[in-house]
Amino acid sequence: MTIRLRAPRRLLAAATASALALSLAACGGTTKDSASDSGDAKAGGNASANPNAPLKKGLKLAFLPKQVNNPYETIVDNAGIAAAKEFGGEAKEVGPSDASASSQVSYINTLVQQRHDAILIAANDENAVCGPLKQARAKKIKIVAYDSDTNPDCRDVFINQASSEEIGRSEVKLLAEQIGSEGEIAILSATANATNQNTWIKFMQDELKKPEYSKMKLVKVAYGDDDDQKSFQQTQGLLQAYPNLKGIISPTTVGIAAAARYISGSKYKGKVALTGLGTPDQMRKFVKDGTVKGFELWDPKNLGYLAAYAAAALSSGQITGAEGEKFKAGKLGERTIGANGEVILGPPTVFDAKNIDQYHF
Ligand code: RAM
Fold first, then answer.
1. Rounded alpha-carbon distances, angstroms, from residue 308 to 55, 245, 314
2. Reported pTM
3. Measured in angstroms, how far is the CA atom of residue 253 from the centroid of ligand 1?
4. What is the predicted pLDDT for the residue at 245?
5. Structural domains in the chain?
6. Which of 160, 197, 281 to mutate to test the pocket of ligand 1 (most atoms within 8 A of CB)?
7. What average pLDDT does the chain have?
């Protein structure tokens, strides 16, 4: 049974990823396997999980973010590094200064040579990092994708900040509320290859097909590459190219902050709505000056914390990444691995003028 369950899970994972555009529903729910897997701690293919194994001491973890100069990734990784201390391990952050597709490959190779127990990666491109990650796994290094997934065959688990479907659909709802569900809209994304943004955008496009949004028209998806200056310029370009634009969704903390800065100093302030995913600390002044009415995010600290505990549980043999396995994530409590090796942190929070002062990250 152990081996029979493993193969379908992997196949399902690959099929689900590639069929996302055609069948968005496949991503949202559980599979038949979830019932039969739950409670079966041995449903892990070659390895078998021992949920009672103690966390090993002295584990060496490495966080490899999309890019090191992204304030969001810094919060996530610092929280993961602190979590590692909590369970007697050590962690560090290394990574590129740009979020381009192949920028993480040389870092993976170095971390493998350094014999880390686990590599935690926010993938800039689901395919570019896949081969090197498979080589790492062949050397018994555990791979935890967080924030932005790679191909399910190239990692053990994916720690998702929230349901991808919920993020994508809620972004459209938020903007619709702000523009009376009417007018031209654009998306200012991160890089064109980013797995997380691309998944969210597909759900946004699907949400926009609903009758209640029939008067909203997505005119352009622009890419600021999670580069502040480029995102600023792309915002300017969008507003010039589409004079009737009523709103922008920027599902990236770098993009939304740059877009807000541009809009707040322009004639578009108060006329063009902006929402997306941002950190309260970066967005506070734009909420206070009226540029932004509402946006959302999860707590990035909890994402890094959960990812670190998942890496420790994998490296200690408590879990193998199979659906239904459970592990204890410190102060976040027990977590269960879902379909496709995905663990979801929790629902996002919407921030607005009323609540933003309660959040500090
Ligand atoms: C940016 C990155 C990251 C994303 C957040 C919301 O910091 O693109 O991957 O999760 O925004």
1. 12, 42, 10
2. 0.88
3. 5
4. 98
5. 50-161+300-345 (3.40.50.2300), 164-297 (3.40.50.2300)
6. 197
7. 90
